């Protein structure tokens, strides 16, 4: 007997190390490739569905992530009948929870906000004393609100309405030390982000703090002219959470559906971050000197 499939929201986390982003891309190792292969191996979907997940599974992800970028709170929506998936996935990809949702739910379009973090070695700014931290946060605060971010992505004209994005908050926290290296975490929440947008916002902030550019570039970049905005490394970037406030408001208390609330997995997520994500960032800085190598390229930019 064929089991009736029901649309669900799948909560997952992953380390982006060794992957060419989230979205399937033939010939490349991606998170979705391994996820959908695991769904097929677990008998959740047929091989035919796995080869064409969009139309046949109604598969959608809340946010794309670039090459090497991790996620501690990604959500995918899809129609499945049963699930026994993790045993077919590598350790750096974990499915933590599955919640039934409405037929019209779409993990991308139903999402009304996304929170990312960026774990950065503080030498990028010079050691983060309180005065330095305040200066960084003053620069980051200039991005808050609705602006034309055409200079913070690729292939967008200044007249393209989709280049306008709304940033809700953008702030760097206190410094901490891991394996002898001082780090800080920058947290940004917005409605949605374009390709490379966050990395470019952080990149220009570092360029200003290090004296390669003046703060005037922040004003210039909102204008019509093209600006050379450096893109910080992807290593420290992580999708931390996707927000479904509107969905929860309309359906979370109707007595039929469940709120999309993943707090019950908070401790598991933190353990995953430490084991698979933060450790990768620290390793990348210690062994590959990711940020220092990138900083040496700032001289090549014309601000």
Number of domains: 2
Main β-sheet description:
10 strands, mixed
Q: Tell me the name of the CATH class of the largest domain.
A: Alpha Beta
* Principal-axes shape call: globular
Mean pLDDT reading: 92
Radius of gyration: 20 Å
Structural class: alpha+beta
Order of helices and strands: EHHHEEEEHEEEEHHEHHH
Count the beta strands. Answer: 10
CATH fold name of the largest domain, please?
Answer: Alpha-Beta Plaits
- CATH-wise, what's the superfamily of the largest domain? Pseudouridine synthase I, catalytic domain, C-terminal subdomain
Percent of residues in helices comes to: 25-40%
Strand content: 15-25%
Helical run tally: 9
In terms of quaternary structure, the protein is single chain
CATH architecture field of the largest domain: 2-Layer Sandwich
Low-confidence stretches: none
Topology:
Elements: E1 6-14, H1 31-41, H2 47-51, H3 53-57, E2 60-61, E3 70-80, E4 93-100, E5 113-121, H4 130-141, E6 145-148, E7 164-172, E8 176-178, E9 181-190, H5 197-209, H6 216-220, E10 237-243, H7 245-251, H8 266-288, H9 290-295
Parallel strand pairs: 3-10
Antiparallel strand pairs: 1-3, 1-4, 2-3, 5-9, 5-10, 6-7, 7-9, 8-9
Can you walk through the features of this model?
The protein contains nine helices and ten strands. β8 (about 175-180) and β9 form a beta hairpin. The termini are far apart. The chain has helices spanning about 30-40, 45-50, 55, 130-140, 195-210, 215-220, 245-250, 265-290, 290-295; strands spanning about 5-15, 60, 70-80, 95-100, 115-120, 145-150, 165-170, 175-180, 180-190, 235-245. Strands 1, 2, 3, 4, 5, 6, 7, 8, 9 and 10 form a ten-stranded mixed sheet that branches. It has two domains: about 1-110, Pseudouridine synthase I, catalytic domain, N-terminal subdomain (Alpha-Beta Plaits); about 115-235 and about 280-300, Pseudouridine synthase I, catalytic domain, C-terminal subdomain (Alpha-Beta Plaits). It has about 300 residues and is α+β, with helices and mostly antiparallel strands. It is about 30% helix and about 25% strand.
């Amino acid at each position: 007997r064929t089991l009736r499939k029901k649309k669900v929201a799948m909560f997952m986390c992953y380390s982006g190390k060794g992957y060419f982003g989230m979205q399937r891309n033939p010939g490349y190792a991606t998170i979705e490739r391994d996820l959908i292969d695991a769904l097929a191996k677990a008998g959740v979907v047929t091989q035919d569905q796995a080869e064409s997940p969009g139309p046949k599974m109604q598969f959608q992800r809340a946010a794309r992530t670039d090459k090497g970028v991790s996620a501690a709170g990604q959500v995918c929506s899809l129609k499945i009948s049963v699930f026994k998936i993790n045993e077919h996935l590598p350790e750096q990809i974990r499915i933590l929870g599955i919640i039934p949702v409405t037929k019209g739910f779409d993990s991308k379009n139903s999402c009304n906000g996304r929170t990312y973090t960026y774990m950065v070695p503080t030498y990028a700014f010079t050691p983060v004393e309180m005065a330095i931290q305040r200066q960084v946060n003053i620069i980051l605060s200039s991005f808050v609100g609705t602006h034309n971010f055409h200079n913070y992505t690729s292939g967008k004209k200044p007249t393209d309405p989709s280049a306008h994005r709304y940033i809700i908050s953008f702030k760097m926290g206190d410094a901490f030390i891991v394996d002898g290296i001082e780090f800080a975490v920058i947290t940004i929440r917005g409605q949605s982000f374009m390709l490379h947008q966050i990395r470019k916002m952080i990149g220009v902030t570092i360029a200003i703090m290090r004296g390669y550019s003046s703060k005037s570039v922040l004003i210039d970049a909102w204008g019509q002219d093209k600006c050379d905005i450096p893109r910080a490394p992807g290593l420290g970037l992580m999708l931390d959470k996707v927000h479904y406030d509107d969905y929860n408001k309309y359906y979370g208390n109707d007595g039929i559906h469940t709120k999309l609330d993943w707090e019950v997995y908070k401790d598991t997520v933190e353990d995953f971050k430490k084991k698979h994500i933060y450790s990768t960032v620290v390793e990348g800085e210690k062994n590959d000197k990711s940020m220092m190598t990138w900083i040496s390229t700032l001289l090549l930019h014309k601000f």
